[in-house]
């Protein structure tokens, strides 16, 4: 699966589109699909902004990219399952467009760049579809709502719009060596951004300044897209799980929670670090940081192929309860507190999610209808396969909106010491998040971002 040192060597090769196509086809066949059928996918269309002649931001369809490695808009692909032939269709050269935008990629260039068997232009899509279904018994597999009006499947006996999306979503959970290398690179670039924010924090006057530092660090390293909208939250803003204004003035807050990651070739880093803006924890913030650090250490330590993620999430809550009991925020029996789900007031989200081309990647089988508050927002349920990549992001938050209803509920309030709790509102929230590759015998942390207390404080003070 490569190492931190050789990911650049792996990335000198081609994105493994054909291996992905075969993996998807095998899943389709295993789930009752036609082994002589054809897979059909379309790229994202180029669009203009509403009421404007400016191009809208482009984000490639992940289903298309998984079987092509191609970031061009207005493209198509087919994969003939029987012959294992992958064909890519790219836009032809339009002379009028060349004047404004320069020469687009040619068919010859695409053949060199992408891991496909044949490259044609998009004007040939319908004729190609007619020629690949010479047998009257074949099936076309496509995704609903992702088939253009001018595309015809008349020559196919059957159209199956049910299997392909599920096939790709399932196959994406386990990563190839190339995908792991993409994730490593996204993590390395994002780490530079996190370190630069740590250094800039002591002199920053506003959260927005620090968001700019992170984005600048990514852009300088040619990572032009963010995996998601960064969370740059000082003080009590860190208690909002998906805080996005990132515009509060920095005054007397102690902590900054930075949840930020870039994309590299559509693959996402998702990293959170929490640290004191001036390089010194308060007693309260240090106590919470150490609890969250211990939550992460213990949960990462048990990760390996086949581990039940639900159980790892529960372990995080057990460590959280023990820590909050020692600080005096919680009181009573640890077992009773776990059973009462009181700790959900302090960590209402799940321990993590799959990671890949999407920050919250496919295949997690979440159950948001679960009546158990501890598991309701857990984005991954079940056993983790080898080669999956999952975030481990325990946290502890002091959100009045969430905790105050617990204080008003006698069944919950008896486990919370309000007088001790009142000293912790200013902490806001602490979260530490790494991206973990699951292996047969254990795991590998893809995130090199500093998080040990002494190292983080040293970096902040160096700024």
UniProtKB/TrEMBL annotation:
Cited Pfam families: AMP_N (PF05195), Peptidase_M24 (PF00557)
UniProt-listed Enzyme Commission number(s): 3.4.11.9
Transmembrane segments: none
Annotated GO MF terms: manganese ion binding; metalloaminopeptidase activity
Record keywords, A-Z: Aminopeptidase, Hydrolase, Manganese, Metal-binding, Metalloprotease, Protease
One example of a Gene Ontology biological process annotation: proteolysis
InterPro entries: Aminopep_P_N, Creatin/AminoP/Spt16_N, Creatinase/aminopeptidase-like, Pept_M24, X-Pro_dipept-like
Protein name in UniProt: Xaa-Pro aminopeptidase
Organism annotation: Bimuria novae-zelandiae CBS 107.79
Lineage of origin: Eukaryota, Fungi, Dikarya, Ascomycota, Pezizomycotina
């Amino acid at each position: 699966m490569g190492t931190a040192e050789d990911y650049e060597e792996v990335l000198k090769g081609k994105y493994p589109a054909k291996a992905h196509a075969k993996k998807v086809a095998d899943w389709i066949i295993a789930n009752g699909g036609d082994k002589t059928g054809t897979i059909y996918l379309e790229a994202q269309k180029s669009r203009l902004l509403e009421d404007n002649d400016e191009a809208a931001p482009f984000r490639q369809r992940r289903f298309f990219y998984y079987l092509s490695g191609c970031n061009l808009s207005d493209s198509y692909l087919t994969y003939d399952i029987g012959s294992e032939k992958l064909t890519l269709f790219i836009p032809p050269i339009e002379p009028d467009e060349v004047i404004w935008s320069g020469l687009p990629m040619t068919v010859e260039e695409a053949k060199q760049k992408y891991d496909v068997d044949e490259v044609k232009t998009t004007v040939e899509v319908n004729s190609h579809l007619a020629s690949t279904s010479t047998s009257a018994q074949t099936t076309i597999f496509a995704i609903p709502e992702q088939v253009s009006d001018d595309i015809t499947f008349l020559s196919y006996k059957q159209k199956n719009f049910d299997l392909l999306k599920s096939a790709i979503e399932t196959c994406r959970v386990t990563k190839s060596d190339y995908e792991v290398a993409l994730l490593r690179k996204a993590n390395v670039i994002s780490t530079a951004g996190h370190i630069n924010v740590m250094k800039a924090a002591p002199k920053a006057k506003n959260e927005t300044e620090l968001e700019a530092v992170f984005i600048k660090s990514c852009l300088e390293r040619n990572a032009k897209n963010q995996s998601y909208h960064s969370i740059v939250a000082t003080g009590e803003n860190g208690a909002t799980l998906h805080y996005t204004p990132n515009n509060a003035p920095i005054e007397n807050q102690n902590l900054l929670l930075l949840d930020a990651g870039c994309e590299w070739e559509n693959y996402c880093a998702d990293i959170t670090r929490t640290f004191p803006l001036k390089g010194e924890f308060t007693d309260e913030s240090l106590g919470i940081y150490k609890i969250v650090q211990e939550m992460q250490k213990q949960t990462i330590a048990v990760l390996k192929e086949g581990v039940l993620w639900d159980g790892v999430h529960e372990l995080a809550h057990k460590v959280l309860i023990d820590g909050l009991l020692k600080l005096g925020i919680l009181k009573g029996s640890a077992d009773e507190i776990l059973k009462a789900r009181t700790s959900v007031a302090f960590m209402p989200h799940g321990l993590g999610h799959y990671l890949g081309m999407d920050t919250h990647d496919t295949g997690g089988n979440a159950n948001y209808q679960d009546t158990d508050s501890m598991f309701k927002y857990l984005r991954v349920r079940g056993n983790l396969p080898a080669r999956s990549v999952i975030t481990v992001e325990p946290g502890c938050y002091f959100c009045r909106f969430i905790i105050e209803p617990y204080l008003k509920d006698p069944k919950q309030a008896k486990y919370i010491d309000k007088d001790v709790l009142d000293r912790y509102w200013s902490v806001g929230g602490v979260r530490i998040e790494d991206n973990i590759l699951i292996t047969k015998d254990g795991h590998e942390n893809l995130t090199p971002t500093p998080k040990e207390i002494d190292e983080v404080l040293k970096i902040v003070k160096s700024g």
